Amino acid sequence: MASVTSLTDSVQQQLASALSATRPEAAGADPLLRRSDRADFQANGILALAKKAKANPRDLAAEVVARITTGDLIKDVEVSGPGFLNITVADGAITRNLAARYADGERLGVPLNENAGVTVIDYAQPNVAKEMHVGHLRSAVIGDALRGMLDFTGEKTIGRHHIGDWGTQFGMLIQYLFEHPGELAPPEEVDGEQAMSNLNRVYKASRALFDADEEFKERARKRVVALQSGDKETLDLWQQFVDESKVYFYSVFEKLDMEIRDEEIVGESAYNEGMPETARLLEEMGVAVRSEGALVVFFDDIRGKDDQPVPLIVQKADGGFGYAASDLTAIRNRVGELNATTLLYVVDVRQSLHFKMVFEAARRAGWLNDDVTAHNMGYGTVLGADGKPFKTREGETVRLEDLLDEAVQRAAEVVREKAKDLTEDEIRERAAQVGIGAVKYADLSTSPSRDYKFDLDQMVSLNGDTSVYLQYAYARIQSILRKAGEVRPAAHPELELHEAERALGLHLDAFGDTVFEAASEYAPHKLAAYLYQLASLFTSFYDKCPVLKADTPQQITNRLFLCDMTARTLTKGMSLLGIRTPERL
Q1: Burial class of 183 by CB neighbour count within 10 A (0 to 12, 13 to 18, 19+)
Q2: Is residue 583, in this structure, part of any structural domain at all?
Q3: Closest CA to 490 of 545, 542, 546, 556
Q4: End-to-end CA distance of the chain
Q5: Are residues 268 and 175 part of one domain?
Q6: Domain span at residue 249?
């Protein structure tokens, strides 16, 4: 791997050197470099430095300009406004940097983070015995994209799918089946989807009975204690639920074009044996106290109605353990056994208070310290076109499989309309890649904390900020490269670049910086925005700069080089987000 210093960093270094030479006290000062409409970059740091030195900003800027050597890197620099520096990069520097990235293969010259750590990502958390619905989409898609970006930067990521496979609902479900035998068909008589549909039906019936019958509710709670105590008959039925549910989970995640590793499915049940010790340690340390028979943690700054403290319940009065016990035990495992330096939770924003309390309790116990960061990346809700939580016409929560199937069907219509030389099998394959990509991109192009509207018509549109627009840009480039035949891409730093070539080249060079920023901020929407702009800049370049009909052979091969570099960057960026880029569309 040959890492390449970005043009932004190279210009920054030269500016910083000129600043410190002009004012020794400015050594190490940040020139505050940013992209500009008036030039390639604009440096704003001189204003702050001039204020500190009690100097005239424009005079100080002029002194700095006098110490900047123009040539291979910087073509021109001028003082602008009250003391800004507008900097133009040399054409040759753009092409040389891109050529170095091109030669590096798949990594595109992007370095690995020297201070990378271990991040445990808790994402894609379906529930055993319940069908996955639209509410499960964001955790899976966002978590998978974050993992792709972090892996690329050099971070070691470990997935944890904290599936709901423990607790009150299973006491309720198991007790119902003991009292209503024959409600479920034997596993060998149904496929995975039918088994889950049957389980889901029985779950709803048990919930209705649980809510309506106090005596059944009490029996169900006792069954939870039997489950947590390891009662064999109870555990056997529970294991059947888990096994059938996993088959179903894998089928849905395969549709979503996501790899879920079996060893990373570590649900609430995995921490059952450790929860009594977690409770004991918390109580011995004084972090948790007994209140009305339950073991709880109180917080001075978290209050509910009538200004009463809201407790984090570690153990219920009946001896059963709540979500807090499994989450705290998971933290002990992830820090102590997996050596995590970062714990990242991709969980619905409505659970933010719960995780705030869990993290604080873990800090008080010493399980989280200055060497470990815990971050709850709460995400917003998927809304329908009416701006309300996405439901079916009957008011039911939309099943995730149905939603994905509809996206693929809608994408097939788009692909078939545009297809010129694709077979039906190829159309079906492309439809899956386009439809699933459209769903993922619509999610990832929105800031995770915000709600977003699920609009399939917009998602599969060829126009606007959609994955289909990006996929077609990539496919168009592949078509150009095929038409070029034996003429191969080649960089020519000696050529003067068209304005559209410069804009495209500078943006391509910023790929690595963007990935690192998006990964460090847990902001996949920033990478999605970069890729959309890249596709837009390529479209502008293609409209203004003939490729195969350029004026000279050198210009043809240089523009083919820009095309291929754009394609490589698009496909790498999209793959980090978990989206495929078909060669033909």
Answers
A1: middle
A2: no
A3: 556
A4: 32
A5: yes
A6: 118-376
pLDDT tens digits along 241-280: 888 888 889 999 999 999 999 999 999 889 989 999 999 9
User: Which one, of 502, 499, 496, lies nearest residue 7 by Cα?
Assistant: 502
CATH number at residue 261: 3.40.50.620
Q: What angle (nearest 5°) sits at the alpha carbon of residue 12, between those of residues 11 and 14? A: 65
**What total number of domains does the chain contain?**
3
Q: CA quadruple 265, 267, 271, 272: dihedral positive or negative?
A: negative
Q: Are both 27 and 150 inside the same structural domain?
A: no
**Same domain, yes or no: 164 and 59:** no
Its pTM stands at 0.93
Backbone angles phi, psi at 397, to 5 degrees: -70, 135
Pair 319, 269 in one domain: yes
Q: Which pair of tokens denotes residue 425?
A: 């099998």
Same-domain status, 324 and 411 = no
Specify whether 222 is located in the same domain as 349: yes
Q: Count Cα atoms within 13 angstroms, Cβ side, for 52.
A: 9
Can you read off the two tokens belonging to residue 333? 């495992």
- DSSP codes of every residue in 435-484: HHHHHHHHHHTS-TTS-EE--HHHHT-SSSSSHHHHHHHHHHHHHHHHHT
d(CA 385, CA 455): 6
> Does one domain contain both 518 and 407?
yes
Phi-psi region of 146 (alpha: psi -120 to 50; beta: other; left: phi over 0): alpha
C-alpha angle 550-556-557 in degrees, rounded to nearest 5: 170
Tens digits of per-residue pLDDT, 41-83?
998 877 777 777 778 889 888 988 998 989 999 999 999 888 8
Q: CA separation (Å) from 325 to 238, 251, 265, 345?
A: 20, 30, 18, 16
427-451 burial, b for 16+ CB within 10 Å, e for fewer? beebbbbbbbbbbbbbbbbbebeee
CA distance 164 to 408: 28
Residue 117: its H or E element = none
- The Cα–Cα gap between 472 and 434 comes to 10
